[in-house]
Structure formats: C-alpha cells, structure tokens
Write a structure and sequence with these properties.
Blueprint: H1 13-21, H2 30-37, H3 44-47, H4 53-68, H5 71-91, H6 97-120, H7 124-146
Helix pairs in contact: 4-5, 5-6, 6-7
C-alpha cells in the first residue's frame, strides 16, 4: 500500500482532520500534521520521520541475491519477506520497523527450535543449514540496532 501525501494535499481541512483522527498519518509528528492541515510548505524530513528501513532492505537484498545467484540467501530472504507480508495482512496495515524486527526474531526462534529438534534426531546437515539461515536473518537485526532502533533505558 503506497501512501502518498502529495496526492492528498488537496483534501479539505475536514477530510484531513478525519484522516488524522483515524490514524492514517500516525507516523507523522504533530508539527507535520499541522503543516498538512494549514497547507504549509513541508520538507522531506517532515514526512519521513521513521522510515521502514528493514522491509526495504529485505527487498534490496532479495534483488542482489538474485543477481548474485545466491539461492540460499534468496530462499531465506523470501521466507522472511513472506512472514512479514503475512503479518501485515493479519494486522491489515503496513508494519513498522519494530514489528518487522519482531517477525524476524520469531523466524530466528523457529530456526533455533529446529536446531534443537535436528540435534535430537542427529541430523547435523539440518543443524548447519538452520545456523546459516540464522546468520542471514541476524544481519537485519544488526542493521536495526545500528540505525538506533532500540531504545536503551
């Protein structure tokens, strides 16, 4: 779902207030919302306060894995994108980076559980495969942490 503020800049004040009340602009701060209502000039920084970095990074990495013909990473990234898409469908809205990270953490937990089960069944090939998948998924968690995604209190 593509949200374009520029195509909606001709809304009446009433329509815009209604959209804000319905949390369609929940990612925008109050000053930006006021600028929208008053039809003041805005910069890119006003509209992109908390960009969805991880989800975009998944798409970019998927394309680069296709170009490199890295079928293993491509498979892991596709599974992660599928899980993110499924979660977005279940929530009926786009996910924030925090929610995308939660989905990736769930995927890592699934693979850790699979490692335990594979170890019990003495299937070391599956153990190594799941460990490699965890390494691929951990890149996205590290990216989120480096972007300042977690608040340390």
């Amino acid at each position: 779902m593509k949200s374009s503020i520029s195509s909606e800049q001709y809304l009446s004040k009433r329509q815009l207030r209604e959209k804000i009340k319905n949390k369609e602009y929940q990612r925008l701060d109050d000053n930006t919302k006021l600028k929208l209502i008053n039809k003041e000039e805005m910069s890119i920084g006003d509209t992109i306060k908390n960009p969805i970095i991880i989800k975009n990074k998944l798409g970019i990495d998927m394309i680069s894995a296709m170009k490199k013909k890295d079928s293993f990473s491509l498979g892991v990234i596709r599974m992660a994108k599928g899980a993110v898409s499924l979660e977005a469908i279940n929530k009926k809205r786009d996910l924030t980076d925090e929610e995308v990270v939660d989905v990736i953490v769930k995927q890592i937990k699934l693979r850790k559980d699979a490692i335990l089960e594979s170890t019990k069944a003495n299937r070391m090939d599956l153990v190594s495969q799941n460990e490699k998948e965890i390494e691929v998924l951990n890149k996205y968690l590290k990216e989120f942490i480096l972007q300042g995604g977690f608040d340390i209190e």
